[in-house]
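Re-run with default settings, no changes from the original entry. Doing this only to confirm the output is reproducible before filing.
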Amino acid sequence: MRTDDRIATNLRTLMILEVLGKNNKAMTATEINASLGLPKQTVHRLCATLEKENFLARQGNSKKYLPARRLRDLGAGLLYSSRDHIIRRQILKTVAEQVKETVNFAVPEDNGMSYVDRVETDWAFRIQLPIGTNVPFHCTASGKCFLSSLNKRERNGILSSLKLEALTEKTHVTIEALMQELNQIKKQGYALDREEFMEGMIAIAVPIKDKEDRFIGALAFHGPTQRISIENAIARKEILLTASQKLREHLF
């Protein structure tokens, strides 16, 4: 095989990932190829290879593909190491200085929300959830923020597969109760964690969206109930919303 043939194959793989990354839905190999015009067998073969290597994953038992762990890790790594990370970090630091609590940037993963960046509070008494921590969707502010961003079909699909484990006595353990709150979150534009994930901890989160209005991640701050009440968390929501808009403008 000539060198230029190998490059062409590599570029085809990247083109497949690019098409999938620009869409906000799962796609079949045929749908991916609609905008590429590559040989059908080639696209199916490359998609199968990407799935085998955990860059792509099937949506349930369908033939549609979604980004998998390795592709998300790649994207997060590129964002972290680029100038965009510097901008994001400065915005998070500004928020932390204003709210005087730990600020998180979390993105959805297969098994919950993953903290990809955070700025710690200066308080000696703080709740530590380091970068790389994964937290559940159903009982965290960032997780509920993500769930509320989904359309009805997507939301029902995820909720039907979630184990609504009671981590505290305030955790939602029924789909009906969780769905009711998600509808409210969608209307109000922010989500709360009322000691649902951890006793003694309150959090508030807002969505971060790109220019196509797609959910990218959640911006949140949390702290112990000794310092934060639900009321003063809500009172500071505009700080998060302003920062979320800045992230949208500068990163996307």
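Residues 1-7 have pLDDT under 50 and may be disordered. The first strand starts at residue 56 and ends at 58.
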